């Protein structure tokens, strides 16, 4: 899986096609812009306005028709279920923000999948290799300032995200080619069982042509080291079904006792913004979106102009009104692995009824 189809993702995908990778999933939420054309080898002027993932997928097929390609046009934090990560042998991150990297890191750790992070700026670049559950992870190396900026973006009242939006980072096609080649080589080493530097960064300074390695210190209390294992494949469970239907299917599969004996609870990976409410004039509006999508909403009451308060939900209890909503409406994407708890027990359930929609054919 390649997450991000910008300049760096273009180079990685080009390399994977030329070496004859068997299958690649491409995830990106953006569309091709004029500014992309000077540093993205797979894009052409006629591609402007089209989804990057689809354009990149078509270019990979043109380079090597034997490669099976799936394009996912969406946000990796909200549109890509853990089942995608589970079926990947290696994940390559070609991202430009810490929030997406943090999320990919957590998904890879939950599914015990290695991933390679790449970053470029001007003439400089870095490649980081993570191999869960061994070694350090991306979050192990995060600083207090990283957490502060993430909290500003996703945990503040709706609307604040526009104030902390990040600008475009200048890059050159030369450093993208170098770092993209480096990422691809590390991925090939992982695929062939060759040793890699676990939990370390490979840093290149293009101004001085200096290269060095740095080893991250593993934090045993790191929040990203959670693992979703073992995974129970539930053939009748789908993101299109309700939480109530998920609970019923799980009870039938595991032969659990009646609901009154031990209620089940769906624990959401993405905080759900159920509604926004104004305490001043008692105005309320339903939202029903995961926070990464809802963070850009207007945070002011249309009646009195006062800041609104978000009503967040992290758990969906069996028998609650929210349990009658479809999982996708609760922020659960297709082919996800969801956590269901009951007392001291918990299960990690793959929504396996969604398998055909992500594995059918070439995925074009």
Report on this model:
By secondary structure, the protein is of the alpha/beta class. The chain has two domains: 2-215, Rossmann fold; 231-359, no CATH class. It is 26% helix and 25% strand. The protein has nine helices and 14 strands. Helix 1 packs parallel to helix 2. The longest helix has 19 residues, at 173-191.
Considering the chains and any ligands shown, give keywords for the structure.
single chain, 364 residues, alpha/beta, Rossmann fold, 6-stranded mixed sheet, 9 helices, 14 strands
Briefly summarize what is shown.
The chain is of the alpha/beta class and 364 residues long. The chain is built from 9 helices and 14 strands. The protein has 2 domains: 2-215, 3-Layer(aba) Sandwich (Rossmann fold); 231-359, no CATH class.
- The low-pLDDT segments are 155-167
Provide a count of the helices: 9
What radius of gyration results from the CA coordinates? 21 Å
Number of strands: 14
Strand content: 25-35%
**Order of helices and strands, N to C?**
EHEHEHEHEEHHEEEHEEHEEEH
Q: Give the biggest sheet.
A: 8 strands, mixed
């Amino acid at each position: 899986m390649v997450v991000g189809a910008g300049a760096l993702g273009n180079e990685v995908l080009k390399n994977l096609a030329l070496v004859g990778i068997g299958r690649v999933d491409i995830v990106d939420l953006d569309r091709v812009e004029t500014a992309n054309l000077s540093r993205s080898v797979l894009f052409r002027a006629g591609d402007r306005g089209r989804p990057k993932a689809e354009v990149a997928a078509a270019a990979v097929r043109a380079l090597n028709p034997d490669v099976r390609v799936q394009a996912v046009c969406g946000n990796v934090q909200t549109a890509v279920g853990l089942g995608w990560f589970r079926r990947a042998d290696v994940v390559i991150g070609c991202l430009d923000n810490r929030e997406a990297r943090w999320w990919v890191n957590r998904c890879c750790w939950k599914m015990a999948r290695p991933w390679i992070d790449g970053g470029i700026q001007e003439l400089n670049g870095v490649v980081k290799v993570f191999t869960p559950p061994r070694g350090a992870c991306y979050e192990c190396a995060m600083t207090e300032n990283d957490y502060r900026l993430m909290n500003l973006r996703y945990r503040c009242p709706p609307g604040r995200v526009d104030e902390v939006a990040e600008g475009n980072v200048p890059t050159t096609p030369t450093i993208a080619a170098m770092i993209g080649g480096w990422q691809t080589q590390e991925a090939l080493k992982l695929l062939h069982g060759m040793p890699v530097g676990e939990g370390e960064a490979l840093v290149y300074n293009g101004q001085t042509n200096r290269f060095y390695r740095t080893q991250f210190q593993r934090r045993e209390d790191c929040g990203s080291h959670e693992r979703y294992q073992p995974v129970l494949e539930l053939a009748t469970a789908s993101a299109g079904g309700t939480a109530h239907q998920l609970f019923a299917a799980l009870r039938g599969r595991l032969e659990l006792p009646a609901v009154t004996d031990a209620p089940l609870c769906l624990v959401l990976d993405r905080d759900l913004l159920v509604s926004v409410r104004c305490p001043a004039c008692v105005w309320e509006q339903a939202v029903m979106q995961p926070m990464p999508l809802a963070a850009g909403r207007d945070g002011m009451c249309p009646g009195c102009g006062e800041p609104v308060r978000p009503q967040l939900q992290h758990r969906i209890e069996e028998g609650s009104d929210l349990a009658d909503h479809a999982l996708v409406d609760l922020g659960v994407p297709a082919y996800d692995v969801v956590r269901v708890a009951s007392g001291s027990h918990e299960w990690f359930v793959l929504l396996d009824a969604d398998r055909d929609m992500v594995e059918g054919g070439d995925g074009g």
